[in-house]
Write a structure and sequence with these properties.
By secondary structure, the chain is of the alpha/beta class. It folds into two domains: 359 residues, NAD(P)-binding Rossmann-like Domain (Rossmann fold); 26 residues. Helices cover 45% and strands 9% of the residues. The chain is built from 13 helices and seven strands. Strands 3-2-1-4-5-6-7 form a seven-stranded parallel beta sheet, with helices on both faces. Strand 4, helix 7 and strand 5 form a beta-alpha-beta unit. Helix 7 runs parallel beside helix 8. The chain is globular and about 50 Å long. It starts with a helix and ends in a 12-residue tail after the last helix.
Length: 394
């Protein structure tokens, strides 16, 4: 029995395309599914990859993990999510696909940056190098600005700040892999190609907050941070990817008629929606193919089928910072990107991000949070609320 059959998937015949590929086949710049599958079949040469998947228990990440465990040789995956039950089940499934591999689930709410720091410290204790950091944890709601205990908007904390914190914390391990001529990749899955105007003087959106402005800021800041990171860490490849229209768990936070409407939309658009199997194949290709090489590195599965090194965000081939559409071709509204590059947006976004993260994780902020939590607990106790787990009244 093949690994595909063990996974419950029937591999398509070599000369058969999926409905999605057929619909978009008129685009000459897309990376064909045949080329991707040819590349992925060579992944057996990738041994003992150490990978980290943030938001890895469903959707695009889950199916990328399955492709990893089907194709690579004895990979190691750390999967970070919120559901212990789902995480444990997925880890068992992955290890069954690939004897000798390891899948470890770590439960954490990554909307809190101090939790991100704790997870990263655990990863650093376990591993000296990391080959792939895959960031796809997402949060969607129709509400307005809602701050975390650290003072960041919840949606922006999950979709942007926590991802950057993971990258910064784990750069030594990613650099160690790249310096050893191994695969060293960061892929953040959000909405490359959805660039729009942002307010460089109000990047935390403490005023004028809307859902559109929230998405625009997360997308544009992610774009420029990938470029800034690639400049500073040329042995690692950084990509911002749009996954296509997929049925993702990100809509789980929606309720009522909006959630129902999205489910109806999914049902009627099924022939045009990228299936998760293909999405997993495409994202696995993005994190393993030498098409998306680091600026100062060539690690990755060799190119085949007439493919070439991808053009980066700066429109330079192989620059190490890539904006990718669902089909692997370059994405991004270059008109908007160029306009913001002219006003030095990259360095401004870098400075803002470092300042916002430092403020959110500062000892002063943590002390204030602890004081507020302690006061809340004492008020609950005084009011006769049940004792909270792990706390005894003083």
């Amino acid at each position: 029995m093949s690994v595909d059959e063990r996974a419950g998937w029937t591999p398509p015949a070599a000369n058969v395309t999926t409905p999605t590929s057929l619909i978009f086949s008129e685009n000459p710049n897309m990376v064909s599914l045949d080329s991707i599958r040819m590349s992925n079949l060579q992944a057996g040469d990738l041994e003992n990859l150490v990978t980290v998947f943030v938001g890895g228990t469903n959707g695009v990440a889950e199916n990328t993990e399955k492709e990893l465990f089907l194709r690579a040789t004895t990979p190691i995956a750390y999967i970070i999510g919120r559901s212990q039950e789902k995480g444990d089940s997925l880890c068992k499934e992955l290890e069954d696909l690939n004897p000798g591999s390891k899948a470890i689930f770590l439960k954490k709410d990554i909307s809190i940056l101090r939790n991100v720091d704790e997870i990263c410290e655990e990863l650093k204790r376990r591993e000296k190098k990391i080959n792939v950091l895959f960031l796809s944890a997402g949060y969607m709601s129709l509400g307005g600005r809602k701050e975390t205990p650290e003072g960041l908007d919840h949606k922006m904390a999950v979709n942007y700040y926590s991802r950057i914190r993971f990258i910064m914390n784990l750069m030594p391990e990613l650099t160690a892999a790249g310096s050893n001529h191994e695969l060293s990749r960061v892929l953040t899955v959000l909405a490359a190609g959805s660039e729009a105007d942002i307010d460089l003087d109000n990047m935390e959106l403490t005023k004028g907050y809307t859902l559109h402005s929230c998405l625009s800021h997360c997308v544009m800041m992610t774009d420029f941070m990938m470029e800034e990171l690639a400049k500073r860490h040329p042995k690692t490849s950084f990509s911002h990817s749009y996954p296509g229209t997929v049925k993702s768990g990100i809509t789980n936070q929606l309720t009522g008629p909006i959630r129902l409407g999205i489910k109806v939309l999914y049902s009627v658009m099924t022939p045009w929606i990228l299936n998760f199997r293909e999405s997993g194949e495409r994202h696995f290709f993005q994190i393993t193919s030498s098409m998306y090489k680091a600026k100062d590195g060539a690690a990755g599965i060799p190119l085949n089928g007439g493919l070439d090194i991808a053009v980066g965000m700066d429109e330079v081939k192989g620059s190490g910072a890539y904006l990718l559409d669902w089909d692997g071709r370059p994405a991004g509204d270059m008109g908007i990107i160029k306009r913001y590059r002219e006003v030095n947006a990259g360095s401004k976004i870098w400075e803002h991000t470092m300042t916002a993260i430092k403020k959110a994780t500062s000892k002063k902020r943590l002390a204030k949070d602890d004081e507020q939590q302690e006061q809340k607990r004492r008020e609950q106790y005084a009011a006769g609320a049940p004792n909270l787990t792990g706390w005894r009244a003083g």
